Please model this.
Amino acid sequence: MRLRRPLLALLLLISPVVGALLIGPAAAAAADEPDPFAPILHALDYLAVDYPGAVKDGKVLDQGEYAEQVEFAASVRGLIGGLPARPERAALEATATGLLAAIRDKRPGDEVAAISGDLRRRIIDLYDVRVAPRQIPDLGPAAADFTTHCAVCQVPLIPEHAHMRCPKCGQRDSCCF
Model:
């Protein structure tokens, strides 16, 4: 009986090592490390969508939003420099520098969106980034939520006769519209 405890302790001690060897170092590292591409791709999406609300006809409409655009573009440029080395990375860095310059020069929104979208696509292609969900989302919780909350304004529904009604917008859950 005394031998079982040391064997159990040894198994518990080496099982993570054996597991990492069986699964592979890349998979073990991937589970522990954040995706280095996610912040870049999200920032590029954000720039493409929100920049036109900050600048129009070369004029800053919202100084706070514009400052954020400059900050995100500078961040993208720095993050690209930290990606794994590839011969094409220098071209990505140059495009990111051009994106930052376009924002600083208050270029039109469609131009900034085009540069941002092109850079995003090239990163995905070059590094073979997976952008689709890894599994089908579970829609059960959402369906359950819409049985108790308004689909329009998300406030809890209240009972009314044999149905439910939103106290905020008046939306009903049934044929009694």
The helical segments are 4-23, 25-32, 38-54, 63-81, 89-104, 109-127, 140-148. The mean pLDDT is 80. Strands lie at 55-56, 59-60, 158-160, 163-165. The radius of gyration is 25 Å.
